Amino acid sequence: MKTFEYITPETIDEALELLGEGAQILAGGTDLLGEMKRGLATPKRLINLKGIQGLADIRSIPDGFLTIGSLATLSHLAEHPLVAQHYPLLIEALQRTASPQIRNIATVGGNLCQRPRCWYYRHSAFPCIRKHGEGCFAMGGQDRYHAIFGGHRCFIVHPSDLAPALMALDAEVRIAHADDSRIVPLTDFFVGPRDSLTQENILTRQEILTAIRIPVPPDNAYGTYLKVSERKATDFALASVAVSIAWLDTQVTHARVVLGGVAPVPWRVKQVEEMLIGDELSGKRIERACERAVDDATPLRHNRYKVALVKGLLRKALHAAHRSREKGEK
Amino acid sequence: MNRYGLKEKIELRINHATHHIEVDVRDTLLDALRDQLGLTGTKRGCDMGECGACTVLMDGKPINSCMLLAVDVMGRNIMTIEGLAQDELHPIQQAFVENGAVQCGFCTPGMILTAKAFLDHCSNPTDDDVRQAISGNLCRCTGYRKIVEAILDAASRLRRGKRHV
Ligand SMILES: Cc1cc2nc3c(=O)[nH]c(=O)nc-3n(C[C@H](O)[C@H](O)[C@H](O)COP(=O)(O)OP(=O)(O)OC[C@H]3O[C@@H](n4cnc5c(N)ncnc54)[C@H](O)[C@@H]3O)c2cc1C
Ligand code: FES
Ligand code: FES
């Protein structure tokens, strides 16, 4: 590991001032330290955010949003009473993220900003395009954990479990910059390989993700997060699905469907959301939705199984949603 | 605002004692424990956050000591396996011994500390609760069955212990 200067600022403004060429933000460090140990990240300056007061707070604010400071740990979030009350889908995602030990250190902001887990990217022997190298070694190589949607010259999948869950809850992120701060819908936060081959989100080197805001879900909403991985714990998703559905009587009035582990960004399937709204959630409709979700899948040589996984997970999630509504009716 | 360069003198609180050591800013807590303080009960398995062999308690919670910089844990209370037994073995350690939950022993310190943090909050767990709790600790020998039994046994020992005091 290359050496670095380690600084713990006390305010966001101080932190912003320290940013720049060669500087990198340290949150929990569970991703960044791994990258530094492998020589993938070589910061000259580490800006440790843990000295900034209030950045780990989780608050409900009067306008109906839950605001999660970017430095809140995953376990802190999972234990928060407001999360249990309003966002069970988020708890399911948190419980399936990494391990208890990692969740005690890893932060929500860091989870959204974590780098890809593609084994070629993570291995120092492969100078891949995401490391400013030549090409994508997964193309024609070992591609079974790679993308079936949205690949383009690079076929990473976004590794976060929280991202699809938060996206299904219409979350927004607050981004601080020395001149101003802005709020961006999480759906606009991630960047696919068509827009950048070297970064996975819109943050510039001069910016810090400071908070995540989630609105209160609509009335009668049901949400679930389902994930398949090779090992049950401490393993990334082969595929996952976050679903949030709301009804008026039997009619679906609100639908969010976001896939994880199958595309370079959390993959929102709007065409499925649109076909679910305005009708009942019948078995037939669920089948059509599952087909529709994988319409534009372009699997690689060894990851066609992910198409079946997505369909199976979505089917299970939508049937669970349907059952929950029927139960609510009784 | 604190700035640190190459080598730094830091203060660590480990097993209720305060230690002043000099670390390289790149050292993880695991490096400091093993190489500076000689507390080799904390094991280095993967060094990447995957195996849990390096588990220690930070302010009572299990964490991977390979995934935190030593300079980053100043002011926190760290407990390693060396800090667990008082005059005699801790009931969890005793339960591991008596239930045959130790084979090569490499995962054991991490397993026991994870179990300690878990049983501090959950006095009457189910088999499933225990499996969830230790899901970040890899064991390549036992198949987990005896470890789960030992932790359930430890829970009942601790419950009995409490009733007597
Ligand atoms: C063994 C293992 C298993 C895992 N399994 C899973 C899993 O199943 N599901 C899953 O979702 N994740 C998994 N992870 C990833 C883990 O969740 C992330 O490493 C963690 O959430 C990152 O958070 P952190 O606070 O440690 O980030 P750090 O490592 O501190 O930072 C990660 C990156 O984000 C940047 N960054 C961090 N915070 C900010 C901010 N506020 N503003 C701007 N940039 C920022 C950093 O500069 C760095 O590049 C696993 C990790 C390990 C080691
Ligand atoms: S050595 Fe830290 S988790 Fe394996
Ligand atoms: S006893 Fe050998 S790894 Fe668990």
What does this protein look like?
The complex is a heterodimer of chains A (330) and B (165). Chain A has helices spanning 12-18, 32-37, 74-79, 81-86, 88-95, 100-103, 108-113, 119-122, 162-168, 270-276, 283-293, 305-329, and strands at residues 5-8, 23-26, 45-48, 58-60, 65-69, 172-177, 181-185, 207-215, 221-228, 239-248, 251-260, 267-268. Chain A is of the alpha+beta class and 330 residues long. Chain A folds into three domains: 1-53, Uridine Diphospho-n-acetylenolpyruvylglucosamine Reductase, domain 2 (2-Layer Sandwich); 54-113 and 157-215, Uridine Diphospho-n-acetylenolpyruvylglucosamine Reductase, domain 3, CATH 3.30.465; 221-329, CO dehydrogenase flavoprotein, C-terminal domain (Enolase-like, domain 1, 2-Layer Sandwich). In chain A, strands 4-5-8-6-7 form a five-stranded antiparallel sheet, covered by helices on one side. In chain A, strands 9-10-11-12 form a four-stranded antiparallel sheet, sandwiched between helices. Chain A has a three-stranded parallel sheet with strand order 1-3-2, with no helix packed on it. In chain A, strand 4 (58-60) and strand 5 (65-69) form a beta hairpin. The longest helix of chain A is centred in the C-terminal third of the chain and has 25 residues, at 305-329. Chain A is globular and about 60 Å long. In chain B, a hairpin with a 2-residue loop joins strand 4 (55-58) and strand 5 (61-64). Chain B has 165 residues and is α+β, with helices and mostly antiparallel strands. The model of chain B has no long low-confidence stretch (mean pLDDT 95). Chain B has two domains: 7-83, Roll (Ubiquitin-like (UB roll)), CATH 3.10.20; 91-159, DNA polymerase, domain 1 (Orthogonal Bundle), CATH 1.10.150.120. The A-B interface holds A 1, 3-10, 14, 26, 28-30, 33-34, 37, 48, 50-51, 75, 98-102, 104-105, 232-234 and B 1-6, 24-26, 28, 47-50, 52, 55, 58, 61-64, 66-69, 71-72, 114, 132-133, 135-136, 138. Bound molecules: flavin-adenine dinucleotide and FE2/S2 (inorganic) cluster (2 copies). Flavin-adenine dinucleotide binds at residues 24-32, 34, 70, 97-98, 102, 105-107, 109-111, 113-115, 159-162, 203, 208-209, 234-236 of chain A.
